[in-house]
Structure formats: C-alpha cells, structure tokens
C-alpha cells in the first residue's frame, strides 16, 4: 500500500504513519521503495521466512479484532473512490 492509503484507511496523520512505518522498517519487518514522491511498503521477505508462525498467527488473529472489519470496509471505500493519485508499484515488490 502507498502511505497515503494507509493514512486514509486508518485515519492517521502523515507524521504518525511515518513514525510507525519507520520503526517497522528499522526493525527489519518492512521493506520500502520510493517512486517519485510516493513510498511503498511491504513485509520483508526475510522476516516472513524467519517468522512464518508469527505472521500466520497475526494474519488470522487480526481478523478477530473488532476494528478489523471497519478497517477492511474503510479500505474498500477508499480504494473504490480512486482518491490516491500515487503511481502503481512495480510488480514483484
């Protein structure tokens, strides 16, 4: 996801989003790349390999949180409105 999408869907400020993403990147959980003024994030491949059980647990466990459905609906609504004018990331990232 692009940072602007994360901000909108989770209703976070740009600075708050940036701080969280920077911390996750510094810990080796996320990778990122920039394209023009946009930054795109994904879960680091090494982190996924080394923490497969944790990642699986989180993927299942997050769905049980009360906020999960609301976040999913917010994403669908945001995505359907095409509000982000960021560039689509490269395939494979």
UniProtKB/TrEMBL annotation:
Pfam families: HTH_5. The keyword Transcription regulation applies. Keywords: DNA-binding, Transcription, Transcription regulation. Signal peptide: none annotated. GO terms for molecular function: DNA binding; DNA-binding transcription factor activity. Residues 1-69 form the HTH arsR-type domain. SMART domains: HTH_ARSR. PANTHER family: TRANSCRIPTIONAL REGULATOR, ARSR FAMILY (PTHR33154), TRANSCRIPTIONAL REPRESSOR SDPR (PTHR33154:SF33). This is Helix-turn-helix transcriptional regulator.
